[in-house]
Amino acid sequence: MLAVDGGNSKTDVALIAEDGEVLAVGRGAGFEPQSAGVPAAIDVIGETAGRMLPGVPPPYADHIAAYVAGADLPIEEERLRAELLRRGYSRSVVVGNDTFALLRSGSSARWGAAVVCGAGINAVAVAPDGRVARFPALGRLSGDWGGGYGLAEEALWHAARAEDGRGPATGLTGAVAAAFGTRTVEEAVIAFHFGDLPMDRLHELVAPLLALAPADPIARGIVDRMAEEVALLGTVAMRRAGLLESRCEVVLGGGVLTARDPLLTALIEERYAAAAPHATLIVTEVPPIVGAALYGLDHFGAPPAAYDRVRARFVGQRVEGQGAIAGGR
C-alpha cells in the first residue's frame, strides 16, 4: 500500500508491505486542494511516488490510505478519492481528513478523540460503534479560532493596537519588531500588506507569544483562549460521539501542541480535567504517516506484528512541528 500524509507544507508518502515492512519513503510539496485544486494536489502524490519508485509505472500499490489536510468535508474526501482512482495509482483508495490519522497513530484503540493544532485547528471523535463526530473546519466561516496562524494573527493585532494607543501595552510590540527585523509593528504590518514579508512567516510570532505569556497579561489571554478552544473541540466531539461520560483517549497533535509549551499544556490539562474527567490526554510521539499506514494495514487485515513493525520504523522520528511551533499543518 501507499500511506499518504498530506499537510499544508509537505506531503509524506510511504510504500508499505502487508507485513508492515516499510519499503520506501518520500516527501513532496504541500498538499493544498483548497487553493491549488484537486488535480494539482493529487499531482503531488503522483510526483512523490514517482521519485520514490523510479522507473515503476502506476499502479504503485494495491491500496492507498491517504489522510490529508484540505479534506474537511466528506464530499472533499470523495473528490480526492475519485481523482486518485482515475489516475490508476492503486486498485483501491481510502481518503480521510488528517485528524483521523492523528487519532489512529496515537490511540491504543481504534476509537477516541483527536485534536490537531498546527497552522490551523480541527478535531474528530470516533465511537467504538463507528459513530463519527467532526467539524467543517473552514476557518472563521465555520466558527474556528486558533491554530498557529490564528495565534499569530491575534498577537499581531494586539501588538498593533498597543503601539498606536488603541490597546493596552504588551511585550508583543517588541516581539513583532524582533521577529521581523522592523523598527515598529506598523512597519511589519505594511511589509505584510505589500508582500515584502510573506504571510507564511506570520507563524514566527507563535514562539515569542508563548514565551511572553507567563508574565504578559495580553499574551496570557491569547494562550488561555487557545487552551479553551483545544478543550472545547475535544469535549464537544466526545459528547457528540457519546464518549464524554466514559474513559476516552484524546490524542493531541500538530506543531502548537507537540511543542509541549509548559503553560499551554497545563491550561489544556486543567480544562480537560474539569470538562472531561474521564479523558486521558496523549501527545503523539510518531509522525502522522503512521496513522495512515495503520489504516492501510487495517484494510489488509494485517497481523499484530505488522502494526508493531510500522510503529518501530517511525518511532523517534521528528513529529511534524515538534521542537518548533505551528509548522506543518
Q: Could you please describe the fold and organization of this structure?
A:
Keywords: Kinase, Transferase. One of its GO terms (molecular function) is kinase activity. Residues 4-296 form the ATPase BadF/BadG/BcrA/BcrD type domain. It comes from Acrocarpospora corrugata. This is N-acetylglucosamine kinase. This protein has 329 residues and is of the alpha/beta class. It has a domain at 2-102 and 286-314: ATPase, nucleotide binding domain (Nucleotidyltransferase, domain 5), CATH 3.30.420.40. The chain is built from 13 helices and ten strands. It has helices at residues 33-36, 38-52, 74-87, 98-106, 147-164, 172-180, 185-194, 206-212, 217-240, 255-258, 262-275, 289-300, 304-314; strands spanning 2-6, 11-16, 22-28, 61-68, 90-97, 112-117, 121-126, 132-134, 248-253, 279-283. The strands form two sheets. It has a five-stranded mixed β-sheet, with helices on both faces. Mean pLDDT is 93; it is low at 319-329.
Q: What is the name of the CATH superfamily of one domain?
A: ATPase, nucleotide binding domain
Task: Please mark out the parts with pLDDT under 50 across 5 or more consecutive residues, or reply none.
Answer: 319-329
- Strand tally, please? 10
* CATH 2nd-level architecture of one domain: 2-Layer Sandwich
CATH class of one domain: Alpha Beta
User: How many individual helices?
Assistant: 13
- As a percent range, the share of helical residues equals 40-55%
Q: Output mean pLDDT.
A: 93
Distance between the termini: 24 Å
